[in-house]
Amino acid sequence: MSVERTALITGASAGLGAEFARQLAGQGMHLVLVARREGRLVSLAQELSAAHAIEATVIVADLSEASAPAALLAELRQRNLTIDVLINNAGSAGPDLLLDRDWAEHRAYVELMMTSAAALAHLLVPGMVERGFGRVLNVASMAGRLMRANDMTYGPAKAYLIALSEALASSVKGTGVNVMALCPGFTRTEFHSEPQMHALRDAIPEWLWYDAEVVVAEGLRALARGRVVYSSGWLYRLVDPLTQSVFSRFLLRSLRRG
Ligand SMILES: NC(=O)c1ccc[n+]([C@@H]2O[C@H](COP(=O)([O-])OP(=O)(O)OC[C@H]3O[C@@H](n4cnc5c(N)ncnc54)[C@H](OP(=O)(O)O)[C@@H]3O)[C@@H](O)[C@H]2O)c1
Questions:
Q1: CATH: 3.40.309.10, 3.40.50.2300, 3.90.1170.20, 3.40.50.720. Which one for 6-257?
Q2: Contact 235, 187 (CB under 8 A)
Q3: What pTM value is reported for the model?
Q4: Closest ligand 1 atom number to CA of residue 40
């Protein structure tokens, strides 16, 4: 008899999050779909519960609000839902640390990109350890592997998620809980549809883009295998060791000085 599992996916109303929902529903997993746009979550929940005979629950939350993770946990308890798989995926491009002068916007962004992921791990991982099974996938980015000028919050926030995943994975080793940071490169989603992202999107050659289906399928396979940091797409896996090498970091630093 197969065990019934439930996955909570943040940022499930679009892009990679919606694709995680589709692929996990395809594996027979029940879902808790979290984001701000309720209409999208409800139609995805209806589509997937009908197609895969699973239960899909919608919880509307703005994860840039400090109170959101605790409210989410209260909602899960009220509905008697136990989470076996946590996909911390919600995210956006965010403000410019120097040019955008409203600090409240930056604080909310840090809350969304880092604090909410740590808070959900804090709230949900102890239960996974106690039950002897759990999966946590933090959607980071190749941007978290190599710091660049003018990227003062997005890349560093993703670097935090990678470091958090490594630390968490070490802490729960041998308990039946796998923790992984997934580092996608450029992926076709709604992420680059904001006007300020169009120039970047149009400058990136076609061969550097991957489809969300590929990124999610590779990510879920790597998570099941117990990988801790995983770059999706063979091209990015090829480049990743270079981004971590002392030599390439030195080279980039000297280029910046020049
Ligand atoms: N696309 C890429 O090239 C790429 C590359 C590397 C990493 N990533 C990462 O992948 C993750 C998913 O992005 P995507 O590419 O799938 O982008 P997307 O299509 O724009 O989806 C972003 C998701 O995050 C949710 N979200 C944004 N702000 C939120 C908030 N304050 N509270 C709750 N949910 C929020 C959105 O839902 P609502 O608007 O409904 O709230 C949406 O479901 C992000 O963490 C991103 O940094 C993307």
A1: 3.40.50.720
A2: no
A3: 0.97
A4: 40
